[in-house]
Amino acid sequence: MRAALHVARARGDTRLEALARRLLMRLADGAFRLAVIGRTNRGKSTLMNAVLGAPYLPTGSLPVTAVVTTVRYGSHAQALVRRRNESIAARVPLAEICRFVAEASAERSHLQVPSVEVQVPAEFLRQGVEFVDTPGVGSDWDVSGRS
After folding, report:
1. What confidence tens digit (pLDDT) does each residue in 97-140 have?
2. Where are the chain's structural domains?
3. Is the pTM of this model over 0.70?
4. What is the pLDDT of residues 13-48, one digit of tens each?
5. Class of residue 77 by CB neighbours under 10 A (exposed 0-12, middle 13-18, buried 19+)
6. What's 87-130 look like in SS3?
7. Sign, CA torsion 137/138/142/143
8. Domain 31-133 has what CATH class?
9. CA 104, CA 110: separation in Å to the nearest integer?
């Protein structure tokens, strides 16, 4: 990417230079993000809980995950809930996460929650790995985060 940045600068291509800079910044954060994608109600959250070693994400026999949920390392388990048009996330106990991610939650819909960040003390995540739990393919969720 650094070579692409130098080439863009030498050619005077400001658009390509800006793109190369953005990509370098994303690479510099050191995180490896693994999005888990699949059909609705096929065990994506269950698989992540198994890898993490504890039931951090809500699961069920009916579809549960309705918003993009990022799982990162944290010294203690907690969730950061983001509401549409608000820049600061609200901290909530991890035990309450279902209220904000569940497909059947009227509160999630009312609060307009497009994403949730879960922080857990899983050693697997300490090295900069992040999971991204997604609503199932074929769910009512779309790329704008609306359901």
Report:
1. 888 887 766 666 677 888 899 999 988 888 888 988 888 776 55
2. 1-30, 31-133
3. no
4. 899 888 888 887 777 767 788 888 888 778 888 898
5. middle
6. CCCEEECHHHCHHHHECCCHHHHHHCCCEEEEEECCHHHHCCEE
7. positive
8. alpha beta
9. 12
